[in-house]
Each structure stands twice: as structure tokens, then as C-alpha cells.
Amino acid sequence: MGSFSKITEQSSRYNHLERMSVGELLQHINEEDQRIAEAVRQALPQIETLVTAIEPRMKRGGRLFYVGAGTSGRLGVLDASELPPTFGVSPDWVVGIIAGGDEALRSAIENAEDDKEQGWKDLQKFLPTADDTVLGIAASGTTPYVIGALKNARKQGLLTGCITSNPNSPLAAVSDYPIETIVGPEFVTGSSRMKSGTAQKMVLNMISTSLMIRMGRVKGNRMVKMKLTNAKLRDRGTRMIQESLGLSYDEAERRLLDAGSVDKVLK
Q1: Model-wide pTM > 0.85
Q2: Measured between alpha carbons, how far is 126 from 163 in angstroms, rounded to an integer?
Q3: Is 243 a catalytic residue?
């Protein structure tokens, strides 16, 4: 692992950042950000293969676990936590696990990512089965916490995938379906919360959204199973019903609140 070359640690294409004006900083960050979508596009075949492999497992009741440390872990927890209100699914269907636990969402936990056994220990709390999938997220592709989790998951017959920003990484080597988004050196050298983190967020959006659509959680282009947890979502659901059934706003809202979800009204 020591000889593994990390693009994510290579020197920025820009120097003397402290001498740049605000306008120059923003322009150059934006220039670098434009590389991200192309890097994700290049990885589309890898993403498709992984999603296609996960779908039948989830249809059999399997779960999807995101495992990461630091920024990568936070992004996994973020994506997982947004799915229940958006698609009306149980919070234990897609689960985000971060090195150091919930405290690490707000504060860096010293050495949490360096424990190669803890990732699998954290996964075991969920009693994983062979229909489950573990997706490791690590820009470097070398995080021991994530590698250990995937290595053990694979031994136990779980499906494994990863998202990394370095090609041919140790993490990819223990993944059945590696996804490599090669975004290049960061604007601030080594700051993988920037381009690498954005690429991870884009890929997670793709994976979870396409899976939720394939699992029947969307009708047409609407989130018909979303939970009515606030006024904005109740209004959105009311308008869906109003447009679909040609009702007045008040009548659509009444039916929505009686039924509890858009899809129950539109059945």
C-alpha cells in the first residue's frame, strides 16, 4: 500500500492560492469542478453494473450499506438519511455507517479510519445477510476502516462495491464492483472534500435514485411515496393529486391527508 500512487494526493494544478483574489479563487475552483461530471460519465458503465447487481438483491429484501470515514462517511450517511422521507422507505433499507459513529458526523474522531477491524464490527451490529450489499466510500481507496469492512463482507458472501478517486486502489481490489471517478488533483492539494466529495455525492445520487425507481418508489417522474413530514411536501403531494385527477386544491389536499400518501390516492 505504501507504493500505491494516489492522484488524490498530487499537487494542485494551481499555486500561491493565498495571493489570488476572491474572483480568481472562485473561477479556478469552478474550472476544476467542471472536470467532475466528465469523470463520473466515464464511470457510468461501472455504476450501471453495480446497480444492476444490487437490484435483485434488494427485491429479495437485501439492504444497502454505505461505509466510509470522514467526508466519505458523512456523504454516505447523508444519502441514506434522505431516502426515507423522499421515497417512503424504511430507514433500515439503506444504511450509512461512518467510522467513529454519529459523533463523527460533526467532529473528526482521531484514528477512527485507521482501525481495519472496526468497520466489519460496526456492520455486524446489523446482522448482515448474503442478500445485503456493502458499498465502501473512500477517495483515497486506502482507508483501513473501509477496506477491512469490505474484505470481511466479501468473505461472508455479501456483494461489495466502492467509490474511489484513485485507479487500481487497494479498496477496488477487495470490491466486486469498483467505481473509479478520476477527478484529478484537488484545488487545495489533498482536500478530497472538494472534487472527490462532489463526485461521490453525484454517484450516490445515481445509485440510490435509480434503485428507488427500479423498486417502484416513483410513478412517472413523481415521488408518490414520499412521507408528508412538512408543509412543503404536503403541498407538493397535493399538487400531484390535483394535476393527476383534475381536482381543486382543497379536495386534493383532503384526499391526500385522508390517505396518507400520494400513491394511495392515485391507485
Answers
A1: yes
A2: 22
A3: no
